Amino acid sequence: MFVRNVLSAAELKFCCKPMLLKKPNNIGYAQFQLRQPFHNSRRSARRPIIEPNPLEIPQIESGPLNASSLVKPLLFTVGVTGVSLAGCVIWEYENVRSHAKAFLRRPNSWLNSHQRRNSQKSEPGPIRQWWDSLRTNEKVFYPILAANLLVFGAWRVRALQTFMIRYFCSNPSGSAVCLPMVLSTFSHYSGFHLAANMYVLYSFMPAGIAALGKEQFVAMYMSAGVISSFASVLYKVMVNQPGLSLGASGAIMAVLSYVCVQYPDTKLSIIFLPMYTFAAGTAIKVIMSVDLAGVVLGWKFFDHAAHLGGALFGMAWCYWGGLHVWGNRDKFLQYYHSFRKDSR
């Protein structure tokens, strides 16, 4: 059904890293810390000079947090979710309409016209052949991976540090609050952070797309990203704790929770300990319990609020059943293909 070996609950926590602000010019984050060089006029010439970090981050915006600052993020979250669902419906409608046009034609005439069109087309290039050979879940995964790799590379460009901090980190006290709620879900600074997130997404994406279809899966992923960011912003405002967050874990947690609730009896295992297996339904309960404890106890190593928000959204999507048009789409396509087969 889908890849059996997945990351454990502990490994999955390396998904959405919070970056806590202690001072406007000082930030601690996973693999790097800002260190100001120590200057002393009486320093000996033989004393080694401490070089500044090549990825030194400029001053980070910080300001007061209050309830009124939640209005714009809330409206933005509703807007992005609505646009995602509307785009999903339009995408699905166009696919169904294209099938309907072919369905209304006579089988023989459709087949002949199809053969004439193919005879006039030139041989596809290697990239198109590679793309056509991919499975549906891979056609959805690789664009997401490419976007994350592009942002990951941009973090390595020192001239872009100010831009990346402002627009690719969710910061409730920054001047740009809304747009980073989406862009931060494609942003990773640590290579391990990126690899862990993409591995979990790739492992659970086949089951998610098989149950939802590619159109609804993309809509759920985009909606979960902005909703998990809003959950993080809401928590920071409630506890009056400014900070930066980035990572795709909110959206991935939605996919994970959806699959685990949809297939609760599926056996999962830890990647490094494949001999120990556990049910998917049990795994999601443990992961959400850890995130809930992190929210209640104020743990700061991960953005537990974003994790919990994404997981709850994925569960809600599963119980709600998504857009009901997909069930009608599957029935229509099944009838359409059976009609084509009988006509031949």
Summed up, what is this model?
This protein has helices spanning 9-12, 71-104, 107-120, 126-133, 136-154, 161-167, 179-183, 191-212, 214-238, 249-262, 280-297, 304-320, 325-343; strands spanning 5-6, 17-23, 26-29, 32-33, 243-246, 267-270, 273-279. With 344 residues, it is an alpha+beta fold.
What features would you describe in this structure?
- The chain is of the alpha+beta class and 344 residues long.
- It has 13 helices and 7 strands.
- A 4-stranded antiparallel beta sheet has the order 4-3-2-5.
- The protein is globular and about 65 Å long.
- The chain starts with a strand and ends with a helix.
- 33% of the residues are buried.
- Mean pLDDT is 76; it is low at 1-15, 20-45, 51-55, 323-329 and 339-344.
